[in-house]
Specification:
Length: 684
């Protein structure tokens, strides 16, 4: 079971390795989901990879952001850099990057970031088919869910065991992007979840601020179920944090025990956010997981001697034979690696004092600042040999360098091929209208207009099948974003029932939904985070008939994307900012939450909160809707097949009013709205 440590800087790489990590993960200067960490330059990446590999530590580079079409030349260059450096794996979120890496660098492992929101065995198996060898599971999963997935998957699973927890399912948060123009999917999250909110404009608390996770009490369970890697979060933190946390977990794993009170205190002191929680591991949620009155208490970014005090070395065996009248010989063995070296000159016969075997061993044992320590030294002396100390030291140094090169060469000998190529042209869409609804009142209002397709939640369709079946040819059944455990059984039953009534199309929001959609035509929602032509093409190859582009794109970026399948763009609606496993309204003591709840931020903006399907899972909507009815000429230039109106909290009257504005050119009264990024520059 691998202990995987974060490294935001080269110093943190040293701290992680020398504190006992089995593997480290870090980013370069671009494409990493923690762009505010120091991150490593190209030169530092080469140094870090060599440093780690010489000490038996694996290296994974995070390329786990969404990228735009015009950034693929930079991506191509960077993947070649980390391939030449010898990195073991790449952690990705974007389907386009996944496909690009697989083609360009076929010898590098591809790991699926937790940003892919994989939360079921179906999601894991979908990625297995694409050649992904490890999946970082969503933090929200319970012990039983992790065990079931791990025991039934071919790919390795990786689980976060320590560090900060996002309130939202990773990969599904647009709050920083929409409110502040800094995209978490682009590595620049401004952490609005650490700000205060209130249920009614007063009694502010940090309702979205979770305590830090620690699964130190559950390492034995994780090992028994076969989890491949235990991941520590913290690329924004310093080397003192890294060395402290890694050291504690290293001891617990090696000594096969639970943490002592002193070790828990140590973990709390290094970073305290109201205490530690075991997250969702025990299938519990609620107020005990939150730091309502304490959003943050950053550790002091002080240097620590702990990383320098330790010096991680790999054990080697040395054999030396020094014979009078022959060239001296040294052999060094480190695991499967074995090298030897001969001296330049024949060994002389000692005039007075021949070499002493213990003195030779002492000289060979001087490994200096190398990555090695001699655990066995065997020396054979024949005749009365004599060598100068400098000659013996030089021979040891040359053999040591040869061993280092032998080890590093195994990692650097990776192929570089060509990235995938896109067809020259896609197709230009017809710009018809579609809409999504959450209630039957909205559906009835929308049916009065000429939408070619209407999206409706699968549970609403199942409850109203008799009324809806006459519209089955233009209805798309929307699956919940998150579908876990027994929920998947219930959704399968609904789909099977509705299929009998002629419903043929399903919208999914994560790759986990593909496994539920056999026999249906698949539509991919904007939550699939499609921001470039490569990911658009790949998702189509995986089965999506129609793909809705990310709401983080501007018009130019939408136009840049080559459309190889039907393309859809959201042009109206309150964009979902978060989906949370914890019920926000319940924590605010505003439950039951069958209707619409609200939370208010410091500026007075009110954010509606609804359910994901009919599960007790909160979806936070933007405080104002996207509105573009007055920009139809601009929208037509995107080249989309469908312009989508998304209805969430609107009543029937407002739904009709919005439909009339878009489809018939009517006016909308008293609407406060946003344009998102559609008519602005690119998100950073």
């Amino acid at each position: 079971m691998e202990l995987l440590a974060p490294a935001g800087t080269f110093d943190c790489v040293l701290a992680a390795v020398n504190s006992g990590a089995d593997a480290v993960y870090f980013a370069g200067q671009a494409f990493g989901a923690r762009s505010f960490a120091g991150n490593l330059t190209d030169e530092e990446i080469f140094k870090a990879v060599d440093y780690c590999h010489l000490r038996g530590v694996r290296v994974y580079v995070t390329v786990n952001t969404l990228i735009y079409d015009r950034e693929f030349s930079d991506l191509d260059r960077f993947i070649k850099v980390i391939t030449r450096a010898g990195a073991d794996g790449v952690i990705v979120q974007d389907l386009g990057i996944m496909e690009y890496v697989k083609n360009l660098s076929p010898d590098i492992e591809v790991h699926a970031s937790t940003q892919m929101t994989v939360h079921s065995l179906d999601g894991v198996r979908t990625l297995e088919k694409e050649g992904v060898c490890r999946i970082v599971l969503s933090r929200e999963l319970s012990e039983n869910e992790i065990r079931y997935i791990t025991e039934n998957a071919s790919a390795e699973t990786e689980v976060f065991v320590h560090g900060a927890m996002c309130m939202c399912y990773s990969g599904q948060c647009l709050m920083s992007s929409v409110i502040g123009g800094r995209s978490g999917n682009r590595g620049r999250c401004a952490q609005p979840c650490r700000l205060p909110y209130s249920p009614d404009g007063k009694d502010e608390k940090f309702y979205l601020s979770l305590k830090d996770m620690s699964l130190a009490e559950h390492l034995k369970s994780l090992q028994n179920m076969g989890v491949a890697s235990l991941k520590i979060e913290g690329r924004m933190k310093g080397r003192h944090y890294v060395s402290t946390v890694v050291s504690v977990y290293r001891k617990l794993i090696d000594e096969k025990r639970r943490p002592s009170k002193a070790e828990i205190d140590t973990l709390n002191r290094i970073f305290f956010r109201g205490g530690l929680t075991d997250g969702y591991f025990l299938n519990k949620k609620g107020t005990a997981m939150f730091a309502f009155d304490k959003p943050d208490n950053p550790y002091l970014k002080t240097d620590s001697a702990s990383a320098e005090a330790l010096s991680r070395r790999r054990p080697i065996e040395i054999y030396a034979e020094i014979s009078e009248g022959e060239k001296p010989f040294i052999k060094m063995t480190c695991g499967e690696n074995s090298v030897y070296e001969y001296g330049d000159n024949v060994v002389e016969c000692a005039a007075r004092r021949p070499l002493d075997i213990n003195e030779v061993k002492a000289r060979l044992n001087k490994m200096g600042d190398t990555a090695f320590r001699a655990v066995k030294i065997e020396v054979k002396l024949n005749g009365r040999p004599f060598m100068a100390v400098s000659q013996l030291n030089e021979l040891r140094r040359r053999c040591t360098e040869k061993l280092e090169n032998e080890i590093m060469l195994k990692y650097k000998n990776k192929r570089i091929a060509e990235g995938p190529r896109l067809p020259e042209t896609g197709h230009f869409g017809k710009s018809a209208y579609s809409c999504s609804v959450l209630t039957m009142e909205q559906f009835r209002a929308a049916c009065r207009f000429c939408f070619e397709r209407i999206y409706i939640p699968v549970h609403i369709a199942a409850e109203n099948v008799e009324e809806l079946k006459k519209e089955n040819k233009r209805i798309v059944l929307t699956l919940p974003v998150i579908i876990r455990g027994g929920e998947r059984i219930r959704v399968k039953k609904w789909l099977s029932h509705l299929k009998k009534f002629g419903f043929e199309r399903v919208e999914i929001s994560t790759l986990d939904g593909l496994g539920l959609s056999d026999g249906f035509e698949i539509y991919a929602s904007h939550r699939m985070n499609i921001t470039n032509s490569y990911s658009f093409k790949k998702l189509g190859e995986m089965g999506a008939h129609c793909i809705c582009l990310s709401t983080e794109l501007n018009l130019g970026q939408m136009r840049d994307i080559k459309k190889f399948n039907e393309c859809e763009v959201i042009v109206y609606g309150r964009i979902p900012l978060m989906i949370t496993e914890n019920c926000i309204l319940k924590n605010m003591k505003k439950c039951p939450c069958d209707g619409i709840g609200y939370m208010t931020d410091r500026t007075g903006s009110r954010f509606p909160i609804i359910k994901d399907g009919n599960a007790c899972r909160s979806v936070v909507l933007n405080s104002v809707p996207l509105y573009t009815a007055d920009k139809k000429e601009d929208l037509l230039k995107i080249g989309a097949d469908f312009l989508k109106l998304m209805f969430t909290v609107e009543d029937a009257e407002r739904t009709e009013e919005i439909c009339r504005a878009y489809l018939n050119g009517g006016a909308v009264n008293d609407v406060e709205f946003t344009r998102l990024r559609m008519f602005k520059g690119a998100l950073s």
